[in-house]
Every structure is written in structure tokens, then in C-alpha cells.
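Colleagues,

Please find the record for the three-part complex below.
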Amino acid sequence: MQIEKKILKKGSLGKLFEKISASGRRILAPAQDGENIFFKEVSSPEQVARDYIQTTLSAKSAVFPACEKLFGYKFEGSQVKIEDRDLNFKPTVIFGLRPCDARSFSVMNQVFTWDYQDEFFKKRLENTAIIGLSCSKADQYCFCASVGGGPGDSQGSDILLTQIGSGDYLAEVITEKGKELVSIVPELFEPAEGEDKEKYLASMPKQFELKELSEKLPGLFNNPELWIEQSLRCLGCGACAFVCPACVCFDIQDEAKKEGGIRLRCWDSCGFSLFTLHTSGHNPREAQSQRWRQRVMHKFSYFNDRLGVIGCVGCGRCSRICPADMNLLEHLKAIAEAK
Amino acid sequence: MEELQKKARELLESQAIKVIIGYGKGSSGQARPVFIRKPEAVDKLILDESCVQNLAVYLLKPEVKALAKPGIVAKTPVLRTILQLASENQIKDGELVVLGISPDNKLIEFSDLKAIEDYVSGLSFEYSQADKALLEKLEKMSQAERFRFWQEQFSKCIKCYACRASCPLCYCARCMVECNQPQWIPVAPHQVGNLEWHIVRAMHLAGRCVNCGDCGRACPVGIPVHLLGEKLAEEIFKSFGLRSGAKVQGEYALGAWKLEDKEDFIR
Amino acid sequence: MTEANIYKPYLMRIEKAIDEAPGIKTFRLLFVNEEEGKNFSFKAGQFGEYSVFGQGECTFCIASSPTRKGYIECTFRQAGRVTQALANQEEGEIIGFRGPYGNIFPIESWEKKSLLFIAGGIALPPLRCVIWNALDWRDRFKDITVIYGARTVADLVYKYELEEWSKREDLKLITTVDPGGETPDWKGEIGFVPTVLEKASPSSENTIALVCGPPIMIKLTLPVLAKLGFKPEDTFTTLENRMKCGLGKCGRCNVGKFYVCKDGPVFTLAQLNTLPAEY
């Protein structure tokens, strides 16, 4: 579909939210919560956080919740009855998603739809439309341009908004879903006269050559010193994986009561020692350095080799929240420059 | 800072220790843990108000232990942690060199753990203004209001275990939450799973937590989990007159029974 | 859901529970829903996720041959939470099964070749499905040799089948126990599997080798196979790794760019040599 350019006046946001809500869709947008910003259900643009670089948690829980029931089961005499789920998800619009996060949906999609089709993810994604928001600012943790993205990248957004000089938004309608959204309240989207978004975007130079990094990595597998040095201060928590918009590893757990129970899946991280622990006690990744190596190699080498996408969108969340200041970008630069 | 760097260089050159666990310059004005092994690299060590992380957490990490005998830069919270770890038999005299840092950033050398105990006994210890205010606010709430407060806070919890990972006293090789026979605590980040995790952790740390505040700092979603530790520390003091991180051979309030223990919780 | 919930298991009734060896059991499972049972098929090498509702899921290969319809079998050792719970299930009870997952032994490409099976202890089950598959298609293959050993006589699994196989003319069976593991009336070999293999010295000409066993056995067997002239592309094994979903999504079994649940568990030695040593 050819991208259509429109203007959305800044004063129209209220009406836009109103009409979207009235159409039966819920709106998720970044909202301030003390010092953090989370995606929450909002009804008006006043509730949306302003003037920030990035949210604390990603929006991935909209399509991949932290905790998801897979099915229920009941014991009935000598029988077991499985109660399958009815997957009816309320149509959702994610408003104000950064371009890096918008790209992460296609990364997640690769995992959930290669070969076996994960209907939990698919149905949620089908019912989700994304109104992205370009970045006019970035901080030292961002590196979207180094992994193929950019502060005004339209990939993954159904509509991408860029705030221009007048305070109004240049709205690029990118997909059919975006067109559908526009059709709910077409009068708010006026024709755009040759607006160029480039000058309103944050400066985001490339910090390392992705190609160089990907080529170096396989050879660095057997360089334990590199991985040990980089991960000495890593505490082995799962914070980086859980805030990451592209991390989708999960655990499957049964929760039982006497008469029945449920099987659910929840977020998990390759950073935990338990992740690869065999019942026999053997752990292929016993040391934190091996788990750190897996994190980097999986995102930047294995994932690409297997599923054709880089498993990182350069949002910088992992580095912002790391209690030990691991700083992924620094480590990646060191690897790209390693001999 | 120069004092510290000088001492660090001396220790490394004489091979009295093999690694200095200290603070270095991190991203965006923070400090970050550094592991200095070469004497020439001691100028990476910094010392200022950004140096707050409790470095004692690295003393028991296998990867750091593998670097052999460490020296550790120790402000007051780290000193108290070292005493607590000593009273739990996790570290002994001679296993490390402690480079104490006084509240006014002067270097203090300790000959042994007892010397740390003597020094710490002369320090006063207070929670931050923000923490005190929030604790007071919670104290004034009814039990139902307090429970609602914590339920709301725990609803943000994603079970990343950053609180556990950053805590020097959470050193169990196999944490209770990792036990699946039986699965004491549900793994999933739902209401029950989150509440049980935080309550169990708080109870396992009651009387042991040195109130360094790292757990609250580590939490990516801003849950003030360190307040649970602060409240329980006060309760332990009220009921048993004991404080953690004070003695080389400290007592664990919840692990000992004495004739004079009050039983007024039995009504 | 109208589309398949890929995490939903089949309901299976335990028709038979057999105590193979101390701590090792075999279940013969029937589909509770007969229609599902009729439509179910798999190929040798594939595995499933077996579950006790309320305890969790566990990964084992399907140990019965795909040529036998209507039921599947699995053999497992009681080791952790789910296997203990499985072992406590009785005949007639219902468990869950998801599958078949994973890649297959390319048995159909081995026509006119000889097959050499080498297994140790609890690792015979993954190869047993291939052995019976081959026996059910006997005239497609030349010689079939099985070398199987365990620590002690009691630890041998499928004792009743070993008995059967030893009487067959179209299969050469060599059983062995570790030195000290024999009983007074033991008639088989005494020695570690790699040693017995070297002694038997089977021909590598036009032969496919299938090896499965504990890591130490594999480590010592592979050089012997190499010495006997077996090429890495003709040596097959099946890997065990921590798995959860079995579908290539949860990430646990990821080794290098492979997922053991999708690109394995069957690997040739040639492929194994390209994997990082993280399994």
C-alpha cells in the first residue's frame, strides 16, 4: 500500500481518542506512574505521558502478556476434561509507540508464527493497531539506527505520527489497518502539503556496524575471557529480558487445585540459571558468562540465522534499568571492535 | 579517592589481593561495579555520591570468587553487610581485604572483621527522608489500606528477581522459588504469585537484611520493596532487641529461641 | 478455539504400566478420543510432551514404532517432579500428550543398508522405536545389529524384548553389563559398551550407526566408530536437552542457531560437530 500523508491537528487528539473508544476499541498509551512510565489503558490524551524518551516496560504485554492461561482442566471421576480458551480479544489501539517498539512486533511475530501458529499471539496481534510516534529526542542508551531502525522508521506502525513545527502531527498512514483507523474519524486527518518529517527527528547516528558485529560473533563464541569480562558485574536477574520488547522466551507452569487447575505460560529469561538446568543436575550454561554470551549471540547471530531478523530493536531499556549498569550498547561496540 | 587508589595499587602490586571490587564510572552519571586486577588500572576507581550499590553482593558470586582473594571498597552499608555475612559463616577473616570508606569519604583500613564491628558500632544509621516519610504514611493507614497499597505495588511486579539478584544476603544456591517439589511459590507474575514471593522474601530476610536499599533501587518497575525490609528490621528490634549487620558473631533473631522471648502474639 | 491450540494436549489413558528397571517405567498409552487415535501418526525419532495435569510436562521420545497403530509408548526414569508424578499414575488413569514433535530418523533413505544400533542404559528407548520400525520393514535392510549395555543386569530395560530379539535370526543382539554388574546366570558380555563395540567390530560398509547413551558413553563410543570407518554423516544420535514447549517458541532448547525441538532431536554426528558445546 502506498503511504498516505495527512495532518492531524494537535487539538484533535481528544476527538480521536473519543471516537476510537466509541468504536469499541481500547487505547493503550504511555502513562506516568511515579518515576516510571507504563502502557496503560487511557481514555483521553491528557492521560498520556509527555516529554519522555522511552517507557519503562515495553508494550509487548499487549500481544504477549506476562501471564497467559493456555487452558483449564477438570477432574471428573476417572475422566479429565480440558476447557479450551475462547480467544476473543478486545480490539486495541496502542498510541504513542516508538518506532523501535513498533519494529519489535515483527520480531516477536517470527517466533510465534514460524511453523506452529501460536493463536494467542496471532489473535492479539490481529486485533491490535499501532499509532506510532516518531522520536524528536534520544538519549545515550538508544541505538535504533545501529540495528536497522531509526527515530522515524515506519516499519510496524499502522499510522506513524511525527510532531512538526506547528505542534500538529504529520500522520503517515502506512497500512490497511491504519486506513481503517482513519476512516473512523476522517475529518480529523487533513491533507498534508509536502511536509518532511526528517528535520523533526532525533539525531541518531550509527554506533556500530551491525554487519561487522554479526560476522565477528560466531568466531567469538570460543573466547571465554571476553564474555567473562563483560558479565562480571551481571547479577543474573531477568530485568533486561522482561523489559525488552523483543524477548519472548517463556515458561509453562501448571497451577493445580484438587478438582482441577490451569496450565499457563509466563515470561522467562535465558539469564536465569534455571533456564537450561536439566533434572539430572547438568547445566549446559552454568556460568553467568555463558548466559550472557547466549543473550548476545541469540539476539544478534542465531536469531538472524534462523528466522531472518535481528532480535534487538535498539530501544535501550535493558541498559536503562540494569541494576549493575551492564549497558548493552557499550558491550556491542566492544565486540564490533574486538580483534 | 586518591588515598583509595593508592592503597589499591599497593595491595595489587604486593599481590596481597588479586582483585579490587570497587566503583568505576558508569553510564549517564551513575557508578558501576568494577573489578580491578592490574595495578595500573586503579585510576578507574572512583568515590563519590553516585557510589551507592552494595558491592558485597559480588563477594559470594562464583565468577568473582574465581578471581581469588578480593579487596572490597566498603561504605557503611557494605561494612554492615560484611558483618552480617560473617555472622552467617559466609566469609571469614583472611578471605578478603576490606577498604572501608567513612561517611566523609576517608579510607579506613581494618586489620580484621572485629575491627569492622568496633568501627560500625560507633556509627549511627538512619533511613532516608523519603523512606521515613513513606513508612510513616503506611503506619498511619489501616491494615486494609496498607494491604491495598501493597497489592497495587505488587501488581506491577514482573518477577524479574532483580530484588533478589541485587541482595547480598540472597545467596542461596537454590532459591526457594526455584524449588518445584513442591512448588512453594507460584512462578507466574499474578496476584498470588507476586504477593507470596515478596512476603516469603521479606520473611527470609527478617533479622538479616541490612537495609542497604539496593532491592528497591534495582526494581525496574519502582516497587519500594526495601520498605518491607525496613519495617521488619524495626519489628525485629522491638521484639528481640537485635539489629543485623552489627556483630561478627551476630544472633539470628528468628533462628534462636530464648526463655525471655515474648509470646504476646498468642491471644 | 476453532484453530488449534498448539499447547493443548491429547488425553491419553494408561493401558499398561511396566516396571522396566529400578526407577524406570514404560507406559502404553491409548487415545481417550478414538478418532484422534485413528488420525494420529508419527515417524521414528519424534518426541512428545507428556504431562500429569497439575504437575507439568516432560519430554520423552515416542518409544514405540510408528508402524504399530492405535497406541504409543514411552519409557522414562523417575528423576524430577513430573516423572515422579507420572510414575505414581496407575493403569487406567489419564495423562496428557502433545506431539509428535521434532525431526525424524530418515529411515526410509536407509533402504538396502545395514543398521547398527548402540545404546546404553535408559537411552535404548529412543532407538527402540527405530529398531521395531526396521524389524517391521525387515526386508528393506541388510544386517541389523544391536549392541546394548547397562550398568547392571537389573538396569537393562525392555528385558522381555531383549529376550525376543536374542531369539531372532534376522537381528544380531549383543548385550553387556559393566564389569561387576553381572549376575551369576548372566550369559551376555561383560564390559563397557565402547569396549564391546570395538570387540564386535561391525563393518562400517554401507552401514548407518545410531548411537544413544549417557554423555560419557557417547564420548568414548564415537572414536571407536570413527576407527571402524563410520562417517559422521552416517552416524546418528538423538539429543536430550531441557525443553518446554517442544514447538520452537519458548527458547529453552536453543543451541546455536538450532532448536533441539525443531532441528533435532535427531542429529547426525556431522551436524553435532557444528553445534556449540552447550547441550
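The interface with chain B takes residues 56, 80-81, 84 of chain C (CB under 8 Å).

Comments are welcome before we finalize the supplementary table.
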